[in-house]
Amino acid sequence: MSEFDFIDWIRRRATDRPPVSLGIGDDAAILAPSDRLLLVTTDMLMEGTDFTFPETTPELAGRKSLAVNLSDIAAMGGIPTAAFVSVALPRSRGMSFAEAFFSGLLDLADEFGVTLAGGDTNTWDNPLVASITLLGHPAGRSAITRAGAKPGDLIFVTGELGGSIQGHHLTFTPRIQEAKQLVDLVDVHAMIDISDGLAADLHHILKASGVGAAIDAERIPLRFPSGGREPPECGVHVSGSHDQGVNAPRSAGKTSLERALSDGEDFELLFTVSPNDANILERDWPLSTRLTSVGEITSENGCRLRFPDGTVQPLPPLGWRHDL
Ligand code: ADP
Ligand code: MG
After folding, report:
1. What pLDDT was estimated at residue 259?
2. pLDDT confidence of residue 234
3. Dist CA 180 CA 178 (whole Å)
4. Cβ 152 under 6 angstroms from ligand 1
5. SS3 at position 83
6. CB of 116 closer than 6 angstroms to any ligand 1 atom
7. What is the pLDDT of residues 137-151, one digit of tens each?
8. What are the residues facing 84 on neighbouring strands?
9. How far apart are CA 84 and CA 86, in angstroms?
10. How many angstroms is it from 86 CA to the middle of ligand 1?
11. Which of 74, 43, 63 is closest to 269 using CA atoms?
12. What is the DSSP letter of 76?
């Protein structure tokens, strides 16, 4: 199969929906202008860093490549519309691998009403690289940025955190629906998606908003709570008597709490709202996705982690960093 046959195969599987009036097949796509603000996000995923084969299927790699971009649009309080997908495909893996990658990607695109509107297809003798640009528009009147958190705001997260490497990073549902629901219900002051870990991503909000925060350790929703199933590849489970804090059960040198704070790739939403809006959320939240209030925004800069016994620790922006 040639590159052109492959693009034809992709084209047959893709469906043009507004605002895309001309999708795959010409020298450029045509999008019908809309009076809404345009959101644009790009993420590049690389074999070896974001997924490995054969541990991951090519379908899940394709799915994840789009899902992380959907998560960024969700974090802006946005509705995704059109995607552009550029790939460097490893020649050795052949066409079935490429088709599987795009099948996984297109299934998720259909689920969220996203049009695959263009891209670029290359083959080479190196690992898979996929770069996706995703367009969208704000669900509400404006987009939600990292700036805008105010002292007194309550800090919320969706879902559960930590241990994403066990599989969640491949199968997570991007929080598009949740973001839309939040925008409909309340005035979200600041929002980010948790890609680098709660501690690191919270610091992005604090820095952009010029505020600080206090987080309650015992309120953080844990994907693998102590006593629960520990990630198998993470070695010895040393039992401890405390649920949280330094004496909690450890795996791979990290407690469940530390994992929730710093593992990253949770792709949950972290956002702040006024106390009044927090009450509205607690009363009227209609979705099954859990919302948890984990602390509050303070006027004093920096971030503190509070424990039930009254201990307070500084919470540095630990987590995943892309060091150059
Ligand atoms: P050109 O040589 O003019 O850049 P291409 O042959 O690269 O054209 O692409 C032809 C059409 O197929 C374009 O509309 C392009 O956006 C689309 N396309 C190519 N690769 C992909 C891909 N991986 N995913 C989606 N669309 C693609
Ligand atoms: Mg091209």
Report:
1. 95
2. 37
3. 5
4. no
5. strand
6. yes
7. 999 999 999 999 999
8. 118, 133
9. 7
10. 9
11. 74
12. T
